[in-house]
Write a structure and sequence with these properties.
Length: 382
């Protein structure tokens, strides 16, 4: 089948979480079917998709059967192995390309690519031994953050080094390598930009947003980010340059720090829909999920227009999931639940969006008031 995919074509999504669920819902609206590959029974994505294969991501027979059943392959979970990726890319188009995945899967490859593209990051060194860690500390200075190069998320696989005494313990705790040491960024804000790029090179970048974390997990996204216009524009410019540098076909989230001098440093790339873009479902004519599907299916990209300001609040763990009845009873809160059977601590169960007229995002007190029952949970901006 050739691009653009016609209605009723099948999009294969690797991963069964909420990002796959919301991608499949956007795909259904555009007339496509989704086929999900996930090891999980009763996954959030499979609940709303056409078909599902329940298998391990490394199961070669399952990957072959999955590829045979779809017209294009994309993902919402990017830690599939290099072998799995090579198998898939020989069978069906994979968008974004495995080359993009290989960069984003490894913090060293990612930072090397960014710096070669002229994009600023925290200073960093690859660390394969304790001796290299000592040399890297001498070069970068403390405090610094030691991270595993792969499979880190929500603050897992990283340790803050305050003094030289922390080094040996952190090295042992993180499994001994391969690791990366990054200079600690004394950031004033964490921001992100979601950018889509089509096969024809068209780029659409959503507005820069601010992300507030609690216990290393995204808690609130404010759209647009309450920052100087020049910084917001710089962040979007950086995201566009990265999408172009990667020859991306698909969607990419760029997580960035703003330091005390207003400099923008890139922290991480995710070549898929991202939690910090969930507000786009309610505040934009075409959401991050729709742009993801449009890019992957070879449709024209819709511009990343925002008709409203928005606050997105994640519903995390059993305490916030328990607020569901109050959320439903509060006018103006737009509810999204992911269909997960069990609310474990730290697990993202759903999210809520609150819209404001364009240009009217309130300050901390107004946001707290607008979040109603969720504000009582302590989830307030400073
Ligand atoms: P990451 O897994 O790289 O996204 O990091 C998770 C969180 O840890 C980030 O959102 C930051 O809040 C914090 N963090 C990560 N790297 C650094 C750094 N180099 N300097 C300061 N904070 C960091």
């Amino acid at each position: 089948m050739s691009f653009p995919l016609p209605p009723n074509a099948t999009i294969g999504i690797i991963g069964g979480g909420q990002l796959g669920r919301m991608s499949a819902m956007a795909a259904a609206r555009l007339g496509y079917r989704c086929h999900i590959l996930t090891p999980e029974d009763d996954s959030p994505a499979a609940q709303v998709a056409h078909t599902v294969i329940i298998a391990d991501y490394e199961d070669a027979n399952a990957l072959r059967a999955f590829a045979a059943a779809v017209d294009v392959i994309t993902f919402e979970f990017e830690n599939i192995s290099a072998d799995g990726l090579s198998l898939l890319e020989h069978l069906k188009p994979v968008r974004p390309s495995p080359a993009v995945l290989r960069i984003s899967q490894c913090r060293i490859a990612e930072k090397t690519f960014l710096n070669q593209t002229g994009i600023a990051t925290a200073p960093w060194r690859a660390v394969a031994s304790e001796a290299e860690l000592d040399a890297s500390i001498a070069a970068i200075d403390l405090p610094a953050v030691l991270k595993t190069t792969r499979f880190g998320y929500d603050g897992k696989g990283q340790a803050l080094l305050r003094t030289a005494d922390d080094a040996a313990r952190a090295f042992a705790e993180l499994g001994g390598g391969p690791l990366i040491l990054e200079g600690f960024v004394d950031f004033v804000q964490e921001i992100s930009v979601i950018v889509a790029r089509g096969a024809d090179g068209t780029i659409a970048a959503f507005d820069t947003v601010e992300n507030r974390h609690r216990d290393h997990i995204l808690d609130l996204t404010l759209a647009p980010a309450p920052i100087a216009d020049a910084i917001a524009a710089e962040a979007r410019h950086i995201a566009r340059r990265i999408a172009e540098g990667l020859s991306l076909i698909g969607l990419l989230a760029v997580e960035m720090f703003v330091d005390s001098r207003g400099k923008v440093l890139v922290n991480e790339l995710a070549p898929r829909p991202h939690n910090s873009g969930h507000w786009t479902i309610d505040a934009c004519p075409a959401s991050q999920f729709e742009l993801h599907i449009r890019a992957v299916a070879g449709l024209p990209l819709h511009p990343a227009i925002r008709h409203s300001d928005a606050v997105m609040k994640n519903l995390i763990g059993p305490e916030e999931a328990a607020l569901w009845p109050e959320i439903l009873a509060t006018p103006g809160l737009i509810p999204h639940l992911y269909g997960k059977a069990e609310a474990r601590p730290g697990r993202k169960m759903g999210h809520v969006t609150r819209l404001f007229p364009h240009g009217a995002l309130p300050g901390a007190f107004g946001i707290a008031t607008a979040l109603g029952p969720l504000a009582a949970d302590g989830a307030l901006p400073d």
